[in-house]
Design a protein that fits this description.
350 residues, nucleus, GCIP_C, GCIP-like_N, A middle domain of Talin 1, mainly alpha, cytoplasm, GCIP-like
Amino acid sequence: ADVTRGALRGRPAAMEAREPLRDVRGALRAVLARLREGEPGEGREPFELPRFWDALGQTFQVTSQEATKLSLAFSRPPLPSAEDCQKLSEDVQNAVLAVATVYYWLPKGQGTTLRKMVRDATTEVVEGMIQLTDTILNAPVESLSQEQLISTGGVWEACEQVSNLPRGEYNQAAVVSALAACLGVVKDAVEEMEHALVEGQDPYGDIMEDEELGFRGNRDTYWSEADRQLLSSCMGLMKASKACLKKVLAAVKAHGKADSPEQIAQLDDLADIANEISPSVDELALSMYPPVNPLAVRLNQTQEASLMNFLNFCRTSHVCPPSEEGWVQFLSGAVDHNMNKVKNFTQGQL
């Protein structure tokens, strides 16, 4: 009984010792809200990109170390005193504030694509630290929980992402990274649909037969010959999307510059338009699965406008010197050709 009473007396003391973590959690949530809603300023000093990257890397590293210290302190008895917890909490808060402060060094003029990537990485670190404090506050005081191990690892992974951020010439490297990501998504969609369109293949072949419904004998799980003629043109559009992203990515690598506000803005616009292409390709791919609704396929040709906008903007930007105009014209023709074929196949659905 004495042991039980001692344990019960110890629980409020343990909770009191963790009270500073509640305060720091609230402060971190405020930092996160500001990151999501606010924008960095123009800065009071001349901006130096190498100094920025060095400072950002150091703050991410310190935050990772503080997460480790915090987690270890609450991993086994004896738990830290209220005074020690206060110090740990202050160190965590200062580390996260330093990360956010360095992000705010990044001026708007360096490009929205670069700023978004840095902001996303910074936000992930703050979210990870909030999750870790939540886990410690909600976990039993007697032992290290699996959730705490996972949360600590999550902070480490978030902090390591700083090494993956594009550090090339200002916004140019960030836009290259963004275009490459869009290209990867479209490549995957094209490959998946090509695999499904193999002659005679059931696109739902990887779905187990239902015990109650029996064999999947419904012809709605297969493509008709008419479907395949329509889908051939749809595949042409998907491949044109992949080719457009691939060629523009190469052009940005070869000719993209960030020497003036106009060039930086043009790169950002290319990244923004590219971000519209991959979702539209996914939507088209989904409408191509049986049973095919030709009208739905036609209505999902939203990437035609995105592709033509992408190509036209590229043509007028600094990344497209005269030597690049040939493929822009060719791909524009390919998009028009395939889109006209889709319209002809689906004309009767209107």
